[in-house]
């Protein structure tokens, strides 16, 4: 039963994302700082997968259980240890590969002339040099989105 719990935890950890199109529950209904900027460049990058150890533990437990059922008592112990080691290596590799993300490194220039670089997972939007964008910062994390079109305010009516 323990190995099933660990495998489930690994599967759930693989579902986490840094997508700019997904807002974390804790960031909902929080006031965010918004800055106007212009894209200088955008390039594809890969965010390396995580290695929390959950994959190694889940793989090790699964490998040990599978290996210990082989042969007699002595062979089962030896194969169980080998299975645990092999399972841990495989589980770690699976965790790392399932948590890798295609991302963008977006370099922007703020209105005050300062430049910033933000790496975020690829979302629905693409960014080209010269595009107006907004940087939204919440809880120390910043995401880049296209700036909404600005509609000029209608002139106030005059009494005359």
Can you offer a commentary on this structure?
The protein has helices spanning 2-13, 54-68, 73-98; strands at residues 33-47, 101-110, 115-121, 132-138, 141-146. The protein has three helices and five strands. Strands 3-2-1-4-5 form a five-stranded antiparallel sheet, with no helix packed on it. The chain has two domains: 1-17 and 49-99; 31-48 and 101-148, Beta Barrel (OB fold (Dihydrolipoamide Acetyltransferase, E2P)), CATH 2.40.50. The chain has 160 residues and is α+β, with helices and mostly antiparallel strands. A hairpin with a 4-residue loop joins strand 2 and strand 3 (115-121). Helix 1 packs antiparallel against helix 2.
Structural class: alpha+beta
Q: What is the helix tally?
A: 3
Number of domains: 2
Task: Enumerate the spans where pLDDT stays under 50 for 5 or more consecutive residues.
Answer: 1-16
Distance between the termini: 82 Å
| Mean pLDDT reading | 75
User: Strand count, sense and closure of the main sheet?
Assistant: 5 strands, antiparallel
Q: How large is the share of residues in beta strands?
A: 25-35%
Q: How much helix is in the residues? A: 25-40%
Radius of gyration: 25 Å
Read across the widest sheet, the strand sequence of neighbours is 3-2-1-4-5
Task: Give the ordered list of helices and strands.
Answer: HEHHEEEE
Say how many strands there are.
Answer: 5
Q: What coarse outline follows from CA principal-axis ratios? A: elongated
Organism: Pelomonas lactea
Protein name: Glycine zipper 2TM domain-containing protein
InterPro entries: Gly_zipper_2TM_dom (IPR008816)
Pfam families: Rick_17kDa_Anti (PF05433)
């Amino acid at each position: 039963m323990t190995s099933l719990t660990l495998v489930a935890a690994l599967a759930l950890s693989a579902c986490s994302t840094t997508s700019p199109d997904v807002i974390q529950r804790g960031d909902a209904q929080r006031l965010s700082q918004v800055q106007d900027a212009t894209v200088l460049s955008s390039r594809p990058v890969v965010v390396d997968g995580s290695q929390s150890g959950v994959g190694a533990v889940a793989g090790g437990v699964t490998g040990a259980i599978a290996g210990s059922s082989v042969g007699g008592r002595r062979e089962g112990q030896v194969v169980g240890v080998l299975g645990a080691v092999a399972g841990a290596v495989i589980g770690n590799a699976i965790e790392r590969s399932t948590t890798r993300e295609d991302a963008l490194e977006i370099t922007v220039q703020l209105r005050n002339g300062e430049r910033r670089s933000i790496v975020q997972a690829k979302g629905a939007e693409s960014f080209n040099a010269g595009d107006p964008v907004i940087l939204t910062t919440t809880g120390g994390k910043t995401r880049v989105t296209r700036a909404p079109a600005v509609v000029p305010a209608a002139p106030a009516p005059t009494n005359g």
